[in-house]
Write a structure and sequence with these properties.
Blueprint: H1 23-37, E1 44-48, H2 55-68, E2 72-77, H3 84-99, H4 107-124, H5 147-164, E3 169-174, H6 181-196, E4 201-207, H7 211-218, H8 222-225, E5 226-227, H9 236-248, H10 256-266, H11 270-283, H12 291-314, H13 319-331, E6 336-337, H14 338-345, H15 349-361, E7 365-366, E8 372-375, H16 380-387
Parallel strand pairs: 1-4, 1-5, 2-3, 3-4
Antiparallel strand pairs: 6-8, 7-8
Length: 395
């Protein structure tokens, strides 16, 4: 069929044509905004899940709802190479300029700008982030050099300015797990203070499944400050809707057996559904798309996933790290004990501890329980088994 009219969107963070299975999370966010609007406190959200389940897409849908509701939104993605302090200064600057243009700033907005200038000078030495704001630093606030205290001053100042203007700010932060423990602790502490002051500031973050543990280790009260909704694979009916609805809107039908073939292979993971749907659309001759075409297209789907979604992650590993991943795959897709993996490789858990830690730092594994590790990428075990031979230790 005509690839120019292909409705599927297998791109990182691209919103699928049919966003299904995320109603509970979107409703929880709307409740959060409504409570804050009426002066009540409510827990911020930290969305967790494996790669490819649509966390970034959900953040985008949440941002859209916030803007429609009249809230100011600022978004960013955390990377290992980004400096957190300057990044937060940039976000607060953007938010403050949306709260009100400088020529209409009232007392609390001016105060927030002064704190921002102090904070910016502290985290960038020359204050370049706020160089275009004609304000003087507000000495004694945002300039202690302690990230937690200074970020608290900054978010409280922003919250007071937003409250003064009858507005509110939503921070949307992706890949939160890449924050250092110190940075995450500072962010949690700053948000905690805005909650205590009942200010119209909230955060919606997204990250891998280890995020609740990291937050709890950073601050003991994190579990009371956040809700941690987990998103994962879609149900069979939801996956079928995600596949058939976009095609149906263009007058194209998909045979029930073809739908079943796709849903079973993808296991309901949203990214895989989009990839399979796009390839199947281009492969099929005409409507209705048949089960035979779905089966025949599967090899192309697998090749595409192997060449991009999966392999790009393996290319960031050392030889020993790849051996560790392959041994885990040999044991199956479930969380595996460190000792069992070490036995397959012919080493001890202590010897492989640094290797396991590096794989967690790289975002390829997470720890669902003490002594356990699991893949952050769905179906990663399948890819490793078909792509790399397992070589048990000699003897």
């Amino acid at each position: 069929m005509d690839p120019r009219s292909n409705p599927y969107t297998p791109n990182a963070g691209a919103r699928p044509p049919a966003l299904v299975g995320r109603d509970a999370e979107l409703q929880a966010f709307e409740v959060l905004l409504d409570r804050l609007r009426h002066g009540h406190t409510e827990q911020s959200l930290m969305i967790t899940g494996l790669r490819g389940v649509g966390k970034t897409v959900l953040l985008g849908a949440i941002e859209e709802r916030a803007r429609v509701a009249g809230w100011i939104t600022v978004e960013t993605e955390i990377t290992k190479s980004s400096e957190f302090g300057p990044r937060m200064a940039q976000l607060v600057r953007r938010a403050l300029l949306q709260v009100s243009p400088p020529e209409r700033w009232r007392a609390k907005a001016m105060r927030a700008a002064g704190i921002l200038r102090s904070f910016s000078i502290t985290v960038t030495t020359e204050g370049s982030i706020t160089g275009s704001l004609d304000v003087d630093p507000l000495q004694g606030l945002g300039d202690s050099g302690d990230l937690g205290e200074d970020l608290t001053d900054l978010l409280v100042g922003l919250g007071e300015a937003a409250e003064e203007q009858g507005s509110g700010v939503v921070f949307l932060i992706d890949e939160v797990q890449f924050l250092s423990s110190k940075e995450l602790e500072a962010l949690i502490a700053a948000l905690h203070k805005t909650v205590q002051r009942q200010l119209p500031i909230t955060l919606v973050g997204a990250g891998l499944p280890q995020l609740p543990r990291l937050a709890g280790e950073a601050k003991s009260y994190a579990e009371r400050l956040f809700k941690f909704p987990v998103i994962g694979r879609l149900s069979e009916s939801q996956a079928a809707t995600a596949l058939t609805e976009p095609a149906g809107e263009q007058g194209v039908a998909i045979d029930d057996r073809a739908v079943h073939t796709v849903v079973v292979y993808t296991e309901g993971y949203p990214y895989f559904l989009q990839e399979y749907g796009k390839i199947l659309w281009d492969y099929a001759a005409a409507s209705p798309i048949t089960a035979v075409e779905a089966v025949e297209a599967q090899a192309v789907v697998e090749s595409k996933l192997d060449g991009s979604f999966f392999r790009v992650r393996v290319e960031r590993t050392s030889e020993l790290e790849l051996r560790y991943l392959r041994a885990m795959a040999e044991l199956g897709p479930e969380p595996q004990r460190a000792g069992d993996v070490a036995d397959l490789i012919g080493r001890t858990s202590e010897q492989l501890g640094p290797t396991r830690s590096r794989l967690i730092e790289k975002g390829l594994l997470y720890t669902p329980g003490y002594g356990l590790a699991a893949f952050t990428v769905p179906q990663f075990d399948r890819f490793l088994r078909r792509s790399y031979r397992f070589a048990p230790p000699p003897g």
